[in-house]
Amino acid sequence: MIDFNLVPLLPELFLAMAAMGLLIVGVAHGNSVTPVICWACAAALVVASFLLFGMSWEKQIVLNGMFVFDNFAGFMKLLIILGLITTLALSVKYLEQERISRFEYPVLIVLAGIGMMMMVSASNLLALYMGLELQSLSLYVLAAFNRNSLRSAEAGIKYFVLGALSSGMLLFGISLIYGFTGSIDFGVIRGALEGLEAIPFGVTFGLVFILAGLAFKISAVPFHMWTPDVYQGAPTCVTALFAIVPKVAAIGLLMRLLYEPFLPVHDQWMQIIYFVSLGSMVLGAFAAIAQANIKRLLAYSSIGNMGYALIGIVVGTPEGAGAVVLYILIYMVMTAGVFAIVLGMRRDGIAAEDISDLSGLSKTNPIQAYAMAIFMFSMSGIPPLAGFFGKLFIFQAAVSAEFYVLATLGIMTSVVAAYYYLKIIKVMFFDESIEAFDKDIPFARRVVLFVAVAFLLVFVIRPEAIVESAQNAAAVLFT
Q1: CB under 8 Å to 235, separation ≥6 — which residues?
Q2: How far apart, in whole angstroms, are the C-alpha atoms of residue 77 and residue 389?
Q3: 468 is in which domain, residue-wise?
Q4: Could you give the 3-state DSSP secondary structure of residue 195?
Q5: Residue 245 covered by a domain
Q6: Residue 2 belongs to a domain
Q7: How far are the Cα atoms of 3, 8, 67, 115, 358 from residue 62, in angstroms, in the given order?
Q8: pLDDT of 242-287, one tens digit each?
């Protein structure tokens, strides 16, 4: 008998119905209603967050073990919803400026969001795959959303082809796990693995393929190759989406997968994640130095940041997991603030993407320059900004678990990465001033910028509440 208790799925069900309804509105009225649909989608996401708050966050497993809702899933879903609302707020004006204002855009974002929320609640390898693909199919379309741009079309094709390859690897890994454990249910897999004296080679082999598929989703080395080209080629509002939200869902999925069904084989997957983390930090630090395009620089920055987040996963303790959740939250806020400024880099209605275009910004627009400086200092890990605490807790967890080499290399790559963050500050404050950016900055973008700056500055005053919430959410995975 299938368990049809759908209460834990209310946010996803509501968003699915809202997306379908708004799609019909768009078809009936055309692209002229795109801004209305964008804000309607944002309102639907707000309602979904209220539904989340109104539910019990005690652990519930429904649909015959396919779907789990607990404190961790609730916290990660709130981050996903917050990121989606931020992306929509940043996008409305940009779509109009680039003449790509089509009603499908916000609907695709909501559908991708449903997939992301399903990912962090997956309690079965099939549910995991369904959520992942719902997210991915929407993102493939969004990457190529500017049909009149060759770069956007190229970004969409690259993302689709490499994404299909990663999905195939993921499915192959799932089939091997099923073959050796006899189930795709997380609980049954864990029970089967705990009862084994020696882990079969096939299980390790399947786990390698699953991790390869998921490493692609968080753009971790060596599956990062799509990131710089897709970030540069996709419309900047879509790049903001890629940078802000999907990584939150993918990290949440990875944590649930490794800490629940595959915790008994921690020694096996720890070695893989260790080198993926190390490679991501090193490549993210050194490859970004030579970049002249700010979107490509942010792509390599995201690769490096995922490397730092993976340190907490390698540790395999509740403290490490809590540090990852906190780090992802702070990273999401920093990235949203940076893209609020990057989306405003326009002269005479034409988008500017080179770092050199920021020359003398402190003289032409000091508010944006100082805000960008705060984001760059925070990403560098300079105290007392929130980015410092994100890295501090990650490195503390690594040292506590005696991963001294990984923590040391993480600190060293942070120092290297600080070079290109500080380079942006140098360009804004010390280079010769050039023509000012257009002053037409929408209110929603100003709000995102203000909230991001305020969060990074105020975090140091009362960090306990957020840190404790992140730790409590992650602790559920170890009970």
Answers
A1: 94, 98, 100, 145, 146, 149, 152
A2: 22
A3: 7-478
A4: coil
A5: yes
A6: no
A7: 6, 8, 5, 17, 51
A8: 999 999 999 999 999 999 899 888 888 999 999 999 999 999 999 9
